[in-house]
Amino acid sequence: MIPIVKPYIPPRNQLMPALQKTIYSGYIAQGKKVEDFEKMLGQYFENNKVLTVNSGTSALHLSLILANVGPGDEVISTALTAEPTNTAISQTGAKVVWADIERSTGLICPKSAEKLINNKTKAIMIVHYAGMVANLNKFYSIRKKYNIPIIEDCAHAFGAEYKNKKLGYCSDFAIYSFQAIKHLTTIDGGLLILKKSSDYDRAKKLRWFGLDKTKPRLKNNITECGFKYHMNDVNATFGLIQLNYLKENVNKYIENGLFFDRELKDVDGIQIIKYHDDTKPSYWLYTAMVDRKDDFIEHMNSNGIQCSSLHLRNDRHSIFEDGSHLKGLESFYGNYVHWGCGWWITEKNRNKIVELIKKGW
Ligand SMILES: Cc1ncc(COP(=O)(O)O)c(C=O)c1O
User: Fold this and answer.
1) 346 lies in which domain range?
2) Which residues contact 177 (CB under 8 A, 6 or more apart)?
3) Which atom of ligand 1 is found nearest the CA of 181?
4) Per the domain annotation, does 5 fall within a domain?
5) Does any domain span residue 3?
6) Does a structural domain hold residue 89?
7) Which of 223, 240, 257 is the last residue of a domain?
8) What is the pTM of this model?
9) Residue nearest to atom 16 of ligand 1 (CA)
10) Is the shortest distance between the CB of 335 and ligand 1 below 6 Å?
């Protein structure tokens, strides 16, 4: 079976000596390797205000705290995402308010989000679902009009672009996940990208109990309670080795995605996604809308291609409000599927996928 997702593990002869060196150096906590990893990521994102953490969820939680989100507040979000996008909001005590999604992309709809803004709204959470990029032109003008911070959940979208630059350079807060199956993995880990120096300084303390790492422990004074969210040198070493393969891997996702877009655009029963202006997706999963979704999934799975939806719409969890009134969500959720698009999809695999779809289901 050709899987939808797969962790990339670098060659043993590159990874193991590096890991052994770090582990037996005697320093395995947050140290030089984390610093080096952040430096490399800062170059990649052309921003030196980047902070690694131990998960994308921690990065989301920190962004919300930096946006001063707390009990009694509202955060506008999407139900079509992995649960941590929204459990992180609940963790602050704020209420998750569902914006609808666009029925043509599955991405959070700016028009619907704008209608929900009121004086309790403290942030808008945008998810670049499956590596597609939300309508940032519209969301940035909403941000300007209402002065409400935007948090970009880029967990699925490493390598994706807005106006020819990597995602995360425009918003107040952007997060990435380095969990096992993402474009770049540190086994578990995450990244927080910040715009303001004051947020960067605050987040640096918040990820480590509220302590200031530049001062001796015995001379520290915690002024805001923080968390144990930092990355350690072992995960950072894994990440540093991954970076050697990153460009090649991300390019494979994108090349495969563009291939499917090209080959499937005129095929009956399937509708490819029309990506937003000024955006370039990084195709973490290939996403399309199909007629008779269940039959399509059966056709693909029985021919060795894993194919399905990946996340339960989050409004189906009892802790969140029901979103049955959301027409875009109802429509997209009933039609969309994913299949694998990453570095493990060879030319032979992708030809087989296209042939299968063209045969009909
Ligand atoms: C859209 C999205 N946001 C956030 C996260 C959280 O990332 P992590 O698993 O690194 O905590 C994930 C998950 O894996 C995700 O898919």
Assistant:
1) 247-359
2) 55, 56, 57, 59, 155, 189, 190
3) 14
4) no
5) no
6) yes
7) 240
8) 0.98
9) 82
10) no
